[in-house]
């Protein structure tokens, strides 16, 4: 009986971890971000495109601004800016237009250090814009904001 109690407590503790959705078309960058967040005690879900991220948020391409999100709670979205198909900016826009997900903080990451691009993302509602490569100190700073 004590064993099952320990398992239940472990599951409760794991479920209490903040949950990040990492979106990047580059598998290396995606895996690096995943490892950095796991190292900082985050639960991580990954997507290799903006379209797949929206599917994870129950907002397929045919949907408009209504996501009607029913999945596991996402506490943060970290998305690459430059991705084929749907850019990180378009993903940010879709997330912020939906009443169901607009409260989820979105951080855009990019190797492009272009002030107008950074300003555009921040004006659209990004919580932050971080230059690649993502580092452990970046993730620690994100974690300390909670």
From TrEMBL:
The keyword Iron does not apply. PROSITE patterns: RESPONSE_REGULATORY. Residues 19-146 form the Response regulatory domain. One of its GO terms (biological process) is cytokinin-activated signaling pathway. The lineage of its organism: Eukaryota, Viridiplantae, Streptophyta, Embryophyta, Tracheophyta. The modification 4-aspartylphosphate is found at residue 80. This is CheY-like superfamily. Keywords: Phosphoprotein, Transcription, Transcription regulation, Two-component regulatory system. InterPro entries: ARR-like, CheY-like_superfamily, Sig_transdc_resp-reg_receiver. SUPFAM superfamilies: CheY-like (SSF52172). The keyword Transcription applies.
